[in-house]
Amino acid sequence: MTPQQAGAFLTVDLKKIADNWKSLQFQVGDKTQVAAVLKTDAYGLGAVEIAKALYQAGCRSFFTAYSFEAVELRQNLPVGTQIYVLHGVLPQTEPDFLKYDLIPVLSTPRQVFDWNHLGHKENMILPAALHIDTGMTRLGLNEKDVQALCSKVPEYLNVSLVVSHLACADNPENVKSENQLNRFDSLCAKLRQALPRPFKESLSASDGVHLNDPRYYKDLVRPGIALYDGAISLEAKVLQIQEVEAGRTVGYGATYEFTRTSRVATLAIGYGDGYPRSLANKGYVCFNGRKAPVVGRISMDLTTVDVTDFSLQELQRTPMAEIIGAHCPIKEIAKLAGTIDYELLTNLSKRFYRIYMD
Amino acid sequence: MTPQQAGAFLTVDLKKIADNWKSLQFQVGDKTQVAAVLKTDAYGLGAVEIAKALYQAGCRSFFTAYSFEAVELRQNLPVGTQIYVLHGVLPQTEPDFLKYDLIPVLSTPRQVFDWNHLGHKENMILPAALHIDTGMTRLGLNEKDVQALCSKVPEYLNVSLVVSHLACADNPENVKSENQLNRFDSLCAKLRQALPRPFKESLSASDGVHLNDPRYYKDLVRPGIALYDGAISLEAKVLQIQEVEAGRTVGYGATYEFTRTSRVATLAIGYGDGYPRSLANKGYVCFNGRKAPVVGRISMDLTTVDVTDFSLQELQRTPMAEIIGAHCPIKEIAKLAGTIDYELLTNLSKRFYRIYMD
Q: Which of B66, B174, B251 is facing A5, going by the closest CB pair?
C-alpha cells in the first residue's frame, strides 16, 4: 500500500519507544532487566520493527503470546536474545521451540509434564519458564501444583525464569498487589529449594513498574503498553467537505441533527479500521490542534466531523485530521469510547499506511 | 500459521455465502443485479476467497472502499467483472484505475472534474459511477452539485451507474427511506436528461434489500453483511482448566468473585483478537451447545469462562469453545458487547487460523 492509496497514516516513533524503554531501565536500575512484551504484533504496531529498535536500545528479552509470533521475532533479531512464549507449548508446536530456541512459559502441570517428557525422550535439557498464579486466576500453576512440582522435579528442564502477573497494579491503593507479592515470594522460595538451578523472578508488567515500588521489580520486568507512551499518532484523509442546512441529519440512523448551517468533513477512517463505533456523537478529531466533534454514527469506512468553526482555507491547508496524537491523546479517546488504550491499539487496522520514524 | 500454532479457528462457509447471494438474487428478481460489497477485506473475512466463491455463484459486480482493495480483487478474478471503488479516486491513485480497469464512484464535484480532466488529457472516455447524497450526509453530490453537473456535462466520462445510500433502512417504519427514494428518483431523472449515455441505478445495500420493497431494488443492489448470515463460526482453544475456591477473584481489576467452588477455563482469545473487552462479565461461549459465561475482564490474549457446570470429561472431549456460531449468534454476541455484528466482524483478528469451506 502506498501513502496515496491509503485513507489514514499510522506513525510509530521508534526512537520514542527506545527512549521509553531506556527510561524504564533507568527507573528499575541495573539489577533488573527490562524485557519487552511484543505479543499481538506489538499491540498491533508491528512487532518486528519495534523489536529491532528495542534491540538497538539494549533490550535482550522479548515475550510473545504464540510461538508463531516468536518465530517471526527470532528470524528478525540478532543472536543472543531470549524469546519467551507466554501461552506455552500448544500441542504439536514443539518443533517451533526446538528449531528457533524459544522458551515456553509453562502454566499447567500438563505442560510441564509434556515438555519435560520431550526432554527425556530427546535426552536434552530443555529451556523453560514457569508461570505461577498468585491471584489473577487466568494462567499459571497454583500452590498445589507448585508443591507437586517441588516434590517431583522435572529433571529435563532448565527453569531459568519464574513469572507471575499482577491483577490490580493499575491501582496503587489496592492491597491485592501486596498479597500477590507475598504469595509470589513464598512460592519462589519453595521452588528455589527444590529446583537444581538458579532462576530469575518476574512479577511486573507495565502497571507493576508504574507502582514505582522496587519490591515489585525483581530480576526482570515485562512492560508492554508503557513502551508506547507518546510514540503513536494516527491521521486520516478528508474525502469530502460539504455545507448542510439546519435540520439536516447525518449518518446511519440519522442520530445527529444540525441546528445551524454547518460544514461537515467526511474522513477516510471508520470502525472497519478499528476506530471505535462507540465514539459516535462523542469523539473528536483535531485540525491544527483544534477539536472537531464526531457527528452521527461512525460507518465502517467513514467518519463525519463538524468543521463549521474552521475556515475552508484552513481545512485546505490541513488535508489530514489528527485521530490519535498530541491533541487527541489515546487514553482520552479510548475513555470516550468506553474502553482502554490497549484495546484501541490492538484494533487498529492493517489498512493504514505505516510510517516508522527512527 | 498452522492450526497447531493458532489459538482460535475462524471458519468461513463459502457455500453458504454463495447460497445467501443466490437467495438475494432470487428475492430481487432478474431485472436487478446483485453485486457484492467486499470492502475492508470483506468485513475482515477474506475478500479474495469470498469474491472467487461469489463469482462462481454468478456475481459480476464488486465494490471496495479503496483502490488497493480493488486491485487485489482484479488480480484474483476472471475477466468480465465490474469493480467499483466507493471512495473514488484518491489523489495520485489514477494509475490503479487505468491499469486495473476499476470504476471510481465519484462523490464530489472536484473528483468529477479531475477524473474528467484526466480523460480529456488522455483523450479517453473513462468509466465512472456517481454517488449522489439523498440524506446520509456522508459522501455524494448534493442537489446543487447535480444541477451543476447537468448544465456542464463531463464529456470524457462514461457514467454507467448512479448510487446513493440509505441512512435508516434498518427500520422499515422510518419515513426517511421513502424521502431518500423520492430524492434519488428525482436526481436520477435530471441526470438521465443531461447525460449522453444510459446508466444503471443503485440505492440499496443489505438493509435496503431487507426492506423487501421492490421500489428500492432499482438496477443493482449492493449487499455486504447480508452475504454472511450463518456463514461464520469462531472457536478458541482451551489453554487451562483450574479449580478455584469460593471467594477467589479472576482477571484484571478482580471484577468477578466466585461464590462457590468453581471450575474456570482460560481460552486462547482476547480483545487483541477482536473479541470485545466489553463482554467482560456479560458474554458467553458454548461447549457442546451449552453456555459458559465469561467471568472477569477479558485480557488481550485470554478470556476466562466459568465451566463449573461441565464435567471434566465433557470438557476434555470438547477442546474448543464456540465463540461465534450456531449457539453464539453473532448478532447476539455483538449486542451484548454494545455494538453491531459489522463492527465485531471487522475487528476479528488476522491471528486466527482460517478455514474456508467450499
A: B66
